[in-house]
Amino acid sequence: MEIEIISKKENVLLGRTEIKFKVLHDKSGTPKREEVRGKLAEVLSVSKDTLVVDTLKPKYGTNQTMGYAKAYKNKEALELEREPVLVRNKLKEKKKKEGTQQQAAPKQG
Fold this sequence. Notes:
The chain is α+β, with helices and mostly antiparallel strands. Helices cover 20% and strands 33% of the residues. The chain has one domain (2-88): 2-Layer Sandwich (Alpha-Beta Plaits).
């Protein structure tokens, strides 16, 4: 698996670097998000704990996947990220619903 950086943009206001990249994966399926995070952190020389892979979009019929990631300056800046993205990157646990599920009200007709 090879990662090619397409563009890097510094977002000073949010304390992060936004990265567009391409993953080349020969003779295998789309790589897992965790594998891509590890390799991308290595390529960018940043901590894996402050890097989130937002999207991975495989190109149909090829061995390429396009992606978008954000490398934050520190963990405090990472708290700005949306919760579902943090859960997908295994940086936060999914919240469990509390209590019992409510029954739907009977229809009146």
